């Protein structure tokens, strides 16, 4: 009697590119310090574009500093490219690339000289063919010997991404890469992010406070606010959480929230001063009832938000993502990254 053959085992899931468990980062003492990250847990599959969406000051850049080994972990665990960030920080840095919010290159150098400098900083050998390949890919080969100071913003951004890819990393961190760019350059960069993800097989962790950017580029998105992950999923999964329309009403004076809550179709009312966020089943059906109940002279502004990542953030926090927040100074962080690569 022949022995029964065992059923083939299912292939194991590949290890995540980034895995974070209960990660906390505190600056200063427990009593007077700042809690920048509060029990953050994430699992980012290899070969994906993952978005970290949140306002400035939410903890996005702090998380990148921790994952790149620039900033110490207060508590919790983090692994990048299969390596423990605490124990193997040097090996982690050898497997990651980084693209800043601001394009920062050596303007007096040519593109080729910038690539040479990057190779020196990372102690790369036989880097020239890889550099030529990247210049061809980004359509910069015919301008390789020209000073970077003569490059357009889009060309400079392409070159910076080429620097980040020179040592063939498995993970790329892009920290607010399109902030301050015009619409055309921003769209060009979106195409580049999608292209390098496909062409070079890298995992991309993209931080942004642009709603449309996260929606267009990312397979999965985590929303971070005040150092906490408050939601995670694909853009469609997150939008499905808000199975309602949001009506935002600003009035000249205060209103009775009970009056608003009693209107047909209202699911929830959130007051913020004289602004009211009203969750309703259908804005089209609700607006005539609202305008009948509130005197016209009291209405300063009414807006309707259909399900989107913006409404997800608004629904979770009661406020919008700031679009005009001041850009932080990234130069110090950039220099830290370049020294860390050396």
How would you describe what is shown here?
It is a single chain. The protein is an alpha/beta fold. It contains 12 helices and 14 strands. It has helices spanning 60-67, 89-94, 111-121, 128-137, 153-165, 183-200, 211-217, 235-241, 257-261, 283-293, 309-317, 331-341; strands at 18-27, 34-44, 49-53, 75-80, 83-84, 96-99, 171-175, 203-208, 220-225, 228-233, 245-251, 266-272, 275-280, 299-305. It has a 6-stranded mixed β-sheet with strand order 6-7-8-3-9-10, with helices on both faces. A 4-stranded antiparallel β-sheet has the order 2-1-4-5. Helix 5 packs parallel to helix 6 (183-200). The longest helix is centred in the middle third of the chain and has 18 residues, at 183-200. The chain is elongated, with a radius of gyration of 24 Å.
Tell me the count of domains.
2
The CATH superfamily of the largest domain turns out to be P-loop containing nucleotide triphosphate hydrolases
Class of the largest domain in CATH?
Alpha Beta
| Rounded mean pLDDT score | 86
In whole angstroms, how far apart are the ends?
A: 65 Å
Radius of gyration: 24 Å
Please state how the strands of the largest beta sheet are arranged side by side: 6-7-8-3-9-10
Q: Per DSSP, what share of the residues sits in E-state strands of 2 or more residues?
A: 25-35%
Q: Which structural class fits the helix and strand makeup?
A: alpha/beta
The CATH architecture of the largest domain comes to: 3-Layer(aba) Sandwich
